[in-house]
Amino acid sequence: MLKLMNILTFIEILGVGGALTGALTVKLILLMNYKAKKKGERKPEFSLPHKTWITVLLFILFFLGAVYEIMKIIFPSLI
Q1: Distance between CA atoms of 52 and 74, rounded to whole angstroms?
Q2: What are phi and psi of 46, to 5 degrees?
Q3: What angle (nearest 5°) sits at the alpha carbon of residue 24, between those of residues 22 and 28?
Q4: Closest-CA residue to 33 (of 65, 53, 55)
Q5: Are 34 and 54 within 8 A, CB to CB?
Q6: What's the whole-model pTM score?
Q7: 10-39 vs 52-74: helix axis angle to the nearest 10?
Q8: Contact 10, 3 (CB under 8 A)
């Protein structure tokens, strides 16, 4: 619809879609990892340390990236 009104180019639409789905995918993977470590009963063959601050940092980083991409489309003169 936005493409028909010549507001966004194809590349901009791909950028917004990629930013949103990428951020959502990473957040879901981090949440699955957290829940698996918390509720898992089996002792794993190897384990990576789970640092809460790294998870929070990644959440914030990907959220800000998605917001930046959307703001770049909504307010192109500001960014």
Answers
A1: 33
A2: -145, 160
A3: 120
A4: 55
A5: no
A6: 0.66
A7: 160
A8: yes
pLDDT tens for each residue of the chain, 79 residues long: 554 456 677 888 888 888 889 889 988 988 888 888 888 888 877 776 777 888 888 889 988 988 898 888 777 777 6
- CB-based contact 79:72 (threshold 8 Å): yes
What is the total residue count of the chain? Answer: 79
Residue 37's nearest CA partner among 49, 23, 28, 54 is: 49
Quickly count: other Cβ atoms within 10 Å of residue 70's Cβ.
Answer: 14
Residue type, 13: I
Instruction: State how far the Cα of 42 lies from the Cα of 40, in Å rounded to an integer.
Output: 6
What lies within 8 Å, CB to CB, of 78 at 6+ separation is: 71
